[in-house]
Write a structure and sequence with these properties.
Elements: H1 2-29, E1 39-40, H2 43-59, E2 61-68, E3 75-82, E4 87-93, E5 102-106, E6 111-115, E7 136-137, H3 146-155, H4 164-169, E8 173-180, E9 183-189, E10 209-212, E11 218-225, E12 229-236, H5 261-268, H6 270-276, E13 279-289, E14 292-301, E15 306-313, E16 316-326, E17 329-336, E18 358-360, H7 366-376, E19 385-394, E20 397-406, E21 409-416, E22 421-427, E23 433-441, H8 453-460
Antiparallel strand pairs: 1-8, 2-3, 2-12, 3-4, 4-5, 5-6, 6-7, 8-9, 9-10, 10-11, 11-12, 13-14, 13-23, 14-15, 15-16, 16-17, 17-18, 19-20, 20-21, 21-22, 22-23
Amino acid sequence: MARRRRRLLAVLGTVAVVSAVGLVLALLSWQPERAAPPRSLTTAEAERLAAVRVTNYRDLRTGVHVTTGAGSTRTELVGWVDWSRPLLYLDVGGPGAGAERGLLQATPALLVIRPDPTAVPTAAPPPLVPPADRWRLHELPAGSALAPVLDLLFDLAADKPDPVAALSAAGARWVARETVPAGPVDVLQGPLPRQIGVASTGDPDTRPRYWVDQDARLHRLTAQLPGAGPVTVTLNRTDRPTLRPVDALGGRPGLPRALTTAEQDRLDRLPQRLRARTGATATLTAPTGRNTNLRGAGWLNWTARTAYLAVADLGVPQRRTLLRRDATGTTRADVPATGDPERPDRPPLPPPADATWRSERAGADDLTTLIDAALAAGRTAPRGTAVRLREDTIADRAVDVVEVRTTRGLQRYWIDRDGLLRRVELRTGPGAWAQLDLTPGTVPALPAPKRSASRAAGSSR
């Protein structure tokens, strides 16, 4: 019995050794299955690639993570794109972020940033409710790598499919089958939106790649983007909150409608109520040029039809401009300043006599147009085609935002339920919105500046 058991163990050992040797030989000779080589698109694949931008347009918005550049030029963008507005809302980080480090909102025509040089290098999703302060109109410098990236994100949506024949002419082809977190996708090569219809050139392996699922939804895109270098766009199609444009871009769009009887009555009685309050303290936020962002503080007097503010230009932080506006025109004086230009102090009273005051009687610019609109509201109800744009809040007060189309452009009046004016907005030349926030109440006397004797004598010579 024992001998038989030993024989059985010996046979089993031999079988195990032979099996192990066979397994080793099989492993040594095994080669992975070769991936299918790139090929031309089938009709169904071509139609899916052609429909990618329409699918984005219909899906409205998505989460986005973009990496562009490499090494010290690498920039990361994390946030959302809303193709229905259209609007981008992104956090900008990475070693190549430069002056744009911080938060960014953009339309195809305008870019506003909230710079934060102290932000951590790695970008993170921005807060769903954007901060209300420190946004500024910004123009990207010539050659900026960020400009073509923002253009690409907007270009990823269209209201009609791309021409299939144009994709084929540009060298579109199937590359691979992969799996992304959302599921299986086909990796397809095709032109960037602005290259559709242009014959393909160069190495086919360097052409843009699209990760597209069976429903023509894009999940990833890689490309060598002219002016930006290597770019990877990853879309999170389940992360799609409703975005709120910041005030400089007009705030929430709203649903315009005709004024109700009560709203029209508040608008008509606005001058009477404002004059009864005498005036208001005022805070100015005015993007009036591509790189001109004004901040200000001061007072308005509706009974005297006078405004007096200290205005800071964020591009010239060491200077303040004292501005007085009345029925005779505008008077300005530049004075040195310290402190945070984002929150300038109110102007000195009385106006300094030793400053060099300049009188201006020419046509109004955006700033004086905004001030004039606020002053005129204490004299006559806003004239023009008025609609109620939306309900909003300011300083914890509910207001109706009334938009009026005037001969001088679009203006908005934020009127609270007591019939008092809390904000005036103006559409400025670049297309951004400037705000003059108001707290109605008693204000100090706003006398005209008096020149010192020495300056008056000097000016008479």
